[in-house]
Design a protein that fits this description.
There is one protein chain. Helices cover 71% and strands 0% of the residues. By secondary structure, it is mainly alpha-helical. The protein has one domain: Four Helix Bundle (Hemerythrin (Met), subunit A). The protein starts with a helix and ends with a helix.
């Protein structure tokens, strides 16, 4: 029973983290879409920069866990949050492997980070595409966490 409580807590933490990151993705994506449409964004620069910093920090953490897991035979990142390790393994699935999951590559994370680092000089279309795809990966991961948190498993 104690293990179930710990799993619920880990899933809750993971769900909260995913939702925070998805919120940052949405803020950045809306800004880029408004720029593409030629419409002024009323979001403060501080709020936008905060979203970029939050997403960039998460990408850095996730990239480290992916690289650590990729270096082991069983694709486990020892010492990492187990739910973050599970997300990292999604990025290590080889193309063509049946997983039912949206797959993503570490290189895609690095490309997204470069677009974020470019700020307003980034290619907005590429940024929106990259953010949309990364959001789908996180939403799938968050759905699994929500099922545990709300006892839907």
């Amino acid at each position: 029973m104690e293990n179930a409580g710990k799993n619920d807590w880990l899933a809750s933490q993971s769900l909260e983290r995913s939702l925070d990151v998805i919120s940052a993705i949405n803020r950045i994506s809306i800004h880029a879409k408004l720029r593409l449409a030629g419409i002024a964004d009323t979001t403060s620069p501080d709020e936008l920069n905060s979203a970029r910093r939050s997403l960039t920090a998460f990408l850095g953490t996730l990239s480290e866990v992916i690289e650590k897991a990729g270096g082991t035979q069983d694709k486990i990142a020892f010492g990492a949050d187990p739910r973050l390790g599970s997300l990292a393994r999604m990025f290590l699935v080889l193309p063509g492997q049946p997983t039912g999951a949206v797959s993503y590559r570490l290189e895609d994370l690095k490309d997204l980070k470069a677009l974020l680092d470019a700020g307003d000089s980034a290619d907005d279309e590429a940024l929106v595409r990259s953010l949309t795809y990364f959001r789908s990966v996180l939403e799938q991961h968050a759905q699994a966490d929500a099922a545990v948190v709300f006892n839907e498993v």
